[in-house]
Amino acid sequence: MLYLFLPLVIFVGIWFYRNSIPVLSKPQKWFLTSLRIISLTIVLLLLFNPIIHFSTKLIKKPQAIMLIDNSQSMAISDGTQQKTKFFESFQEQISDQISSDYNIETFNFAATLEGNDNSTNLQNSLQVLQTKYSATEIDEIFLLSDGWFKDDNYDFLKKLNIPINTIIPNIKNNFSDISITDIRNNETAYHGDICPIEIRVNAMKFAGNATLLLKINNQDYSTKTLDFSKDSFQKIIFEVKFSQLGLNTISAEISAPKLTETDLANKKLETAIKIDDKRNKILIISDKLTWDIKFLIDAIKTDAKLEAEFLLKDNVLYKNNVPTNLSKHISDSKVIFILNNDKLRFNNFEFKLIANYQKNGGSLVFMGNYLDQFAEILPSKKSEIHTEFESTILLSDASKKYQTFNFEAEQIPPLKYKFIRPKIESEVLAVFANEQRSAAILINNGHNKIMQLAMKNLWRWQMHSKESSFTKFIVDICNWMSSNSKNNFVSFTNKNSYFLGENVKLELIAYDEKLNVLNDLNAKLELKKSDEIILTKYLENNSDRYSTIITELKAGKYFYSIIDDKTKQKTAGEFIVRSDSGESRDVGINRSMLSYISKTTNGKTISDDNIDQLEFSAKMKEYRVNHEIPIYKKKWLILLFLTSFCLELFFRKRWGML
User: Half-sphere exposure (CA, 13 Å, Cβ side) for 171?
Assistant: First the structure.
């Protein structure tokens, strides 16, 4: 549009000074005409706001990044020099080879890019690197690291789309060393139980005797002498009976008087075990010792948190063929299974014990035939039909809200049963596949402390199912029926102890009274060390659980509590952070990891043998940069307008035209 008006502006400027009074010379006319054309043109520019568009082409070298591991493990010596020295020569040689074709920038990394050296996290480092460069800007990454990383998984490598070239120097350890590589024990044990603790010791180029010391809560517990004359690797088992409840620290130390070592950090390793007061006892009472009893006990034994106790009820009550009293066994029971094969009868004293147990919050699970004595509390009524039938079962819609019933009912073979009628206040979770759809599994809908499995021969499920679905079902019932508000609101860490610099993952699972997942909590974490509050934060909601990751904790014992702002439910726990970082155990080069990284990212594996033959196909990058110049925003344009306008006015007056 501006170009259309420019001829008109020129015409107006010439026409305006075509005739003048007084008459001007040609130079004077052309001078004033030019000033007028300039002024009018600038007015047009300001009216139309034109922008000048143009582009330029730039040629840029591809970008190469040198990532240099400066974590503590890189300072470990092979007997002659530190690992860092081996990588320095590679760095110089690679830089010389590619400097003419690549722009090279170097970064140190450990816990993150330019981060703390007590841990090595490749994912964190790459994420920070990508905040400095976009994914398309980086063409090659050269990873100078020993390959000992602390990442939880390496799926991020498949999404990176940047080749990572790894360096594997020929490092051979030429020194003798003894190290404790691992301590293996259960996460949880129980007061008074014997707990096996397995300690793994590795001796490198050493064939003498060494002494292994086990400490419990920083107190000497036991020592053993190890002979490495035949084997360089040994597994030593200590059997420990813990007397202190809560988190107990376990540490192992190895020493060999005749061995002089440069690396002393790997001679000690520490972990922790949680000691609970006792297991949840599941009491089983039946009038016969049947296959149902055998498989029920076997299933309960698979869960370390549970223990089963069986009582046989004839005219009197027996435990292991010895007469006993129910009052000795019922008080510390979390759940009572009552299996009636047709002859089970309790005396008045036993019946009152069981009834009072249930009134005080105890859970009852009835199996087999209907038990008349408990007609008032059972979730069903007795039918007038006394014939025994056999059929498969089907899960009801009501069962879908309970995780315990998350299994395929088709796995269960036909079971024996007698007809019963559900009470109005009860909830039917499964029915038999007959025309009447008679109840098979019921619960008392008041507080879910009474369940009835109205069938016999449920043990057949275990024989017909290839999976352990029967065992899981029984264990889930035991945990569900023994649950209270405390274990419906459960927090846990993924380990009891962590190396210095290792991330602590803390999770919370919360259910309502029917085991439905609660997704709308405000779960607040408070972390303490020696009664000092270290951290407070809210946990993030991730589908069926809440979680957070805690980083950069100092060595020591930590206590945490989580409270929901809405329901005021609370849970607590503890863990330890070791004084050593774990980097001290990363001796040598993790060749398999470095090879995996280069292969996954389509990079190259560089070694002493092939570094001279490797070529990197560098192509110059062409960039076209677009430019925009908004002329109307230029200050000089206003200045030019004022200058031309004022000059024209001045000379018109000077030459007698005003």
Answer: 26
Say if residues 282 and 364 touch (Cβ distance below 8 Å): no
Separation CA 8–CA 4 (nearest Å): 8
In the sheet that holds 188-190, the strands lie side by side as 188-190, 268-276, 246-255, 209-216, 219-227
363: enclosing H helix or E strand? strand 363-368
User: Of how many residues is the chain composed?
Assistant: 658
User: In the predicted model, what is the mean pLDDT of residues 241-260?
Assistant: 83
Looking at the chain, the whole-number percentage of residues with pLDDT higher than 90 is 27
Q: Which residue did the predictor score with more confidence, 548 or 55?
A: 548
Strand locations in 265-359 (E): 268-276, 280-286, 306-313, 317-319, 322-323, 333-340
Q: DSSP readout, 586-613?
A: --S--HHHHHHHHHHTT--EEETTTTTT
* C-beta atoms surrounding 646 within 10 Å: 12
**CA neighbor of 216 nearest in space, from 200, 201, 195, 236:** 195
pLDDT in tens, 72-98: 888 877 667 788 888 888 888 888 888
Over residues 399-404, mean pLDDT: 82
Q: 66 — phi, psi (to 5°)?
A: -100, 115
Decide: 409 and 395 in contact? Cβ < 8 Å: yes
Q: Write down the residue that tokens 């498949």 correspond to.
A: 158
Residue 643, amino acid: T
Instruction: Provide the pLDDT for residue 451.
Output: 92
Q: Is the pLDDT of residue 212 over 60?
A: yes
Adjacent-strand bridge partners of 603: none
3-state secondary structure of 217: coil
Residue 594 and residue 147 in contact, taking contact as beta carbons nearer than 8 Å = yes
Say which DSSP state 337 is in: E
Rounded to 5°, angle at Cα 645 from 641 and 649? 170
Torsion of CA 581, 184, 534, 153, to 10 degrees: 70
Q: What is the DSSP letter of 266?
A: G
Single pTM value for the model: 0.54
The string of pLDDT tens digits covering residues 301-359 is 998 888 899 999 988 999 999 999 999 899 889 899 999 998 899 999 999 999 888 88
**Beta carbons of 479 and 303 less than 8 angstroms apart:** yes
Express each pLDDT in 406-446 by its tens digit. 888 888 999 999 999 999 888 899 999 988 888 888 888 55
Q: Are 486 and 562 in contact (CB under 8 A)?
A: no
Cβ burial of 272 (10 Å; 0-12, 13-18, 19+) is buried
- 107, β-bridge pairs: 67
- Cα distance between the two ends of the chain: 34
Rounded CA gap, 605 and 84, in Å? 18
The pLDDT, as a whole number, for residue 485 is: 47
Residues 6+ apart with CB under 8 A from 627: 53, 54, 55, 56
User: What is the rounded average pLDDT for all residues in the chain?
Assistant: 84
Determine the residue type at 260. Answer: T
Higher-confidence residue of 302 and 24: namely: 302
